[in-house]
Amino acid sequence: MFQFETCGQVNYGEGAHMISTFCTLGWMSAIAAMAADVSSPPVTFNKDVLPIVQKNCQTCHRPGQIAPMSFLSCQETRPWAKAMKASVTLRKMPPWFADPQYGHFSNDRSLKAREIDTIAKWADTGALEGDPKDAPSSIQWPEGWQIQPDIIVKGPTTDVPAHPKNNVVEWITVTVPTGFTADTWITSVQIKPQHPAVVHHMCLGFNPHSPDVKYFEPLWQVKERAADGSAIPGNAPTFGPARPGPSTSMGEDCYLPGNVAADYRQFQAAKLVPAGSDITLNLHYQPNGTAVTDQLQIGFTVAKEPPLRRYLSFSTSAPQDPKIFAIPPNDRNWQSPSAEVTFNEDVELVFMMPHMRFRGKDMTYTLQYPDGRKEIVLNVPHYDFNWQLGYATSIQVPKGSNLHVDAHFDNSRDNKFNPNPNKTVFYGEMT
Hints:
By secondary structure, the chain is an alpha+beta fold. It is 13% helix and 32% strand.
């Protein structure tokens, strides 16, 4: 899929708060540095590295999460010491792609220079464990959940084949009941697949109940595809199993690599789900050669009282018309049609998430205020398809402001993820 979507989330509330001297000095400095180096204590895992790892790495690097190795203990981490040094020195890890020149993000997981130096010194000096008494208390990570849900809703069960035709499982739409018998303010939500290794994304949206809805019935569009799995432009899809499902756009809240749960509590906000609502799920599975049956669960935390502010989510996309959205062959810097959002009320913009595919190169969010002033609020100059990151911020946006989102795509051989630089690429759902 070569999709360009932008997702924003806003807080609505009341008013604007809703959502040879030189030689001598040089010599003396060198002696002092050497003396300090000799006398400084060794860098150890327990005292120096573990606090960094707990804060910036263990969210993913622990059993059952997306990372392939665990960093809970020195014994688990030490074999990867040299690799850790290389990754953090090159700033490949932790994944974080926002340009520091623009915006401020409360969830910034990038390492400071002193933290990078600490990990590098630890790797270079034997990856010592140190005194267990120096270690901070272990973080009690929730078992399988990033949140501790008050309510768990049963989701669908899906058979994901090892090797489907063209290695494609079409996007699946499924509706399930919330079971909410009263209007409910949810304060966080997590979609939890049983087998995350085969999940590209899962998103949900809330809908009023429709009498003709068939719960747990999977619906999808059957599209004519080329041998590489790409949809053939101009051929109308058929529908499976019997009828078209709801729109397959990205939903309100998603499970994504690097973006597992949505938590509104940090903003003193909640999302209102009316009584009797249904949940429509959009499921994108990506087979990995092993057949699995995935059982999905959805967890919510709820507020006992109405919140101070209401949390709303929306997504917007570049135009999908193939006459407009067509990435030329071997173009290393194709500018996509932009996406636009107009704010009709005073809001607080709190979250942005660029979303593209293999050929995605960069994305820039620019706010234009009613007085004509423009401000870049997010710039992702090197987009990485492998990490669908969201960026938490706090920007007061007055009514009448516009959000303008620009993106570029690299359909050339310079893009190491590009499966074929010699074809025109249109909008599509598959990776």
